[in-house]
Amino acid sequence: MSAIEQRSPYDYLVQLERKCRVASPGLPVAEAQQQQWSGVLFNLAGYELVAPMSEVAEIGDMLPVARLPGVKPWVMGLANMRGNLVAIIDLRRYLFATDASATEAGRLLVIRHGGSLVGLRVDTVIGMRHFLETQRTGDTPSLPPPLEACVVEGFLDQGMVKPVFSIRRLVNDPAFQDAAL
């Protein structure tokens, strides 16, 4: 009898496994992944800003709005978004006291605030951006005071700093919460 014939099937599989382990190149070493920060890049009154993705529930087109009496001019009204009422805020008018031109429809950054949906009307939404943590900078470009109050940091992108617009800071501002006349 030869040696192969004397081995049990189990022994044969164990020997085969050892040969495979010796011949295998090994598993690839997991490289450390760099942390990424994601945000929504949008344009407001000529400024490119990035809102943290964690603070934006949805991005949408501007909706038909039902005007509300007795509210500040920057409250555009209420809209129906798939059966949910959304308070629509003109962010340009709130921050800069200027309206968008009548031809600009704008886009909505929909956020959840206090169990309700709030749509922040911005001029355009450019899209999602991902930044490496190494791109983070505490430096921000010079911005007008109402906008500067909502900017918390920035990210370097192609030699320019993209300011991070904190929606959380905006909605916690007592002036933003006081929408009644």
UniProtKB/TrEMBL annotation:
Which SMART domains does UniProt cross-reference here?
CheW
Which residues does the UniProt record annotate as the domain CheW-like?
A: 36-176
Which is one Gene Ontology cellular component term of this protein? Answer: cytosol
Known Gene3D superfamilies for this protein? CheA-289, Domain 4 (2.40.50.180)
Looking up Pfam families in the UniProt record yields: CheW
Write out the GO biological process terms: chemotaxis; signal transduction
SUPFAM superfamilies assigned to the protein according to its UniProt record, in alphabetical order: CheW-like
Q: What is this protein called?
A: CheW-like domain-containing protein
InterPro entries from the xrefs? CheW, CheW-like_dom_sf, CheW-lke_dom
Species the sequence originates in: Acidihalobacter prosperus
